[in-house]
Specification:
Blueprint: H1 2-24, H2 29-44, E1 46-55, E2 60-67, E3 78-80, H3 84-92, E4 96-99, H4 109-115, E5 121-129, E6 132-142, H5 151-178, H6 188-200, E7 206-213, H7 216-223, H8 225-242, E8 248-254, E9 257-263, H9 267-282, E10 299-306, H10 313-329, E11 335-336
Parallel strand pairs: 10-11
Antiparallel strand pairs: 1-2, 1-6, 2-3, 4-5, 5-6, 7-9, 7-10, 8-9
Length: about 350
């Protein structure tokens, strides 16, 4: 019995140590959270685990990561603050152990009906950083012993929740530092740093493009500043839906300008995707777009290539900018990728 009593805390400490170590080495929570939850499931011997994040605008929890049977069914589920066990934990910022979940009126039975998963026992712990609610971590259905969670289980999840909350905060801080707040694309600084690093890494080729919304001042004058911001957001979404290549980096470059880079991709394919971006923007219905000089919102694009036309980012930007000017001069709504 003495050996068993020592063994469980060691497992818990190992989980905490490894989780803290892994969280401190990366800011990519999408890859890391599932791994941490999987380890938690194994050590606590439970059927399912999930992290719900808090949407401050809608005041709802949504499932960011869920592991276990029927986990995919939870993607569209949203839980209002104060509703259900997780919603109540989020509202009160107090952890709970609920064994015999079926006997409590707080349990949202419709979630089980939607997923086909039967919740029997649960630990729910708030994720809090600097008194700010970030979400809730849930552990469901203990398999061993009585099937009930105990105070020791709760302590390990509360300790783990502290690590997870700090990591979520750090990841969001980093994300805000590299993301343009209007479009949710990467910002100019991050795009430039990343392209510079790619060039230094020894890539064989890189195609760089600057995209500029045509007659943007006219659009703003006709439709107002808010509509102009909306046009920038729509353009960003078209880019997001069009550019699917992994070997790419793109973002807002400033004002109504965007930048794209494709690396170690055939030149013809890169140019074709850039042309797809231009065409898809041209075919998108923008509010007030028909009042534009060309009868719709369009973009002009200048392109340069490494290593043939530039050896560093500065030279690639300079040439792409010159070709963008040419695109504007010859009528706009086109891609210029060569001097002739």
């Amino acid at each position: 019995m003495r050996t068993r009593t020592i063994e469980l805390p060691k497992k818990y400490l190992t989980l905490l140590f490894n989780s803290a170590k892994e969280f401190s080495s990366t800011l990519n929570l999408k890859d890391l959270l599932p791994k941490i939850l999987e380890n938690t499931k194994k050590i606590l011997n439970c059927e399912a685990a999930s992290v719900l994040l808090y949407d401050e605008l809608s005041k709802e929890l949504y499932f960011d990561v869920a592991l276990g049977e029927k986990a995919n069914e939870l993607k569209e589920v949203r839980i209002p603050l104060g509703k259900g066990i997780a919603g109540k934990v989020a509202e009160t910022l107090k952890s709970v152990i609920v064994n015999n979940v079926g006997n409590t009126t707080q349990h949202l039975k419709w979630v089980d009906l939607k997923t086909g998963f039967k919740t029997k026992s649960m630990i729910a712990v708030p994720l809090v950083f600097a008194d700010r609610l970030l979400g809730v971590i849930e552990i469901l259905n203990k398999r061993s012993g009585s099937g009930f969670f105990n105070s020791q289980d709760l302590k390990i999840i509360e300790a783990l929740a502290n690590v997870v909350a700090i990591s979520i905060h750090n990841a969001r801080t980093y994300e805000n530092a590299i993301t343009d707040p209007l479009t949710n694309l990467y910002n100019s600084g991050y795009v430039q740093r990343t392209i510079t690093e790619i060039l230094k890494s020894g890539v064989n080729t890189l195609i760089f493009a600057i995209i500029d919304i045509d007659y943007f001042k006219v659009y703003n004058d006709n439709n107002g500043h808010q509509a102009g911001n909306q046009a920038i957001k729509i353009t960003a979404e078209v880019m997001r839906l069009t550019i699917r290549e992994e070997n790419s980096i793109y973002g807002r470059y400033g004002g109504e300008e965007f930048a794209i880079a494709f690396y170690d991709l055939p030149r013809e394919k890169s140019i074709a995707i850039i042309e797809d971006v231009r065409r898809n923007i041209e075919n998108t219905d923008y509010p007030g777009g028909k009042r534009q000089p060309l009868g719709k919102v369009t973009v002009s694009i200048g392109v340069s290539s490494y290593p043939d036309e530039g050896k560093n980012l500065e030279s690639l930007v300079e040439l792409a900018d010159k070709r963008l000017y040419v695109a504007k001069k010859i009528g706009r709504n086109c891609v210029v990728f060569a001097d002739n």
